[in-house]
Design goal:
mainly beta; two-stranded antiparallel sheet; 54% strand
């Protein structure tokens, strides 16, 4: 997970499978994770997920999605 603001990376979290919820089927993986935002000032931020498939040797980068901290 990459958290950024105005194209400046602020936080990068690596999924270890221990700190979130995951569901895996043969065609899909669903992840849910809490991201600590207590050090973020009020404002708009972007989150993006980067997935590395070590079997296929491919990397997938999701579109950015925006969220707001009050």
């Amino acid at each position: 997970y990459v958290i950024s603001q105005r194209d400046k990376e602020l936080m990068r979290l690596k999924e270890d499978g221990k700190n979130g919820m995951s569901m895996i089927t043969s065609q899909q993986i669903t992840l849910a994770r809490q991201i600590p935002l207590n050090k973020f000032a009020s404002g708009h931020y972007d989150v993006q997920v980067i997935v590395r498939d070590n079997v296929a040797g491919k990397t997938v980068i999701t579109d950015k999605d925006t969220f707001h901290v009050k």
